[in-house]
Amino acid sequence: MNPTVAISIKGLTRSFGEVRAVAGIDLEILDGEFLTMLGPSGSGKTTVLRMIAGFEKPDAGTIYLGNKDVAQLPPYDRDVNTVFQDYALFPHMDVITNIEYGLRVKGVDKSERHNRALEALKQVRLEGYENRKPSQLSGGQRQRVALARALVNRPAVLLLDEPLGALDLKLREHMQLELKELQREVGITFIFVTHDQEEALTMSDRIAVFNHGRIEQLGTPREIYENPQSAFVSEFVGQTNKLTLDGVRINIRPEHIQLTKSPTPSGRAIAGTVTDLIFIGSTTRYRFKGHDGTSLISTNPDGLLSVGDSATAQWSKEKEFLVQ
Question: Where is each ABC transporter domain found (predicted)?
Answer without folding.
Answer: 7-237
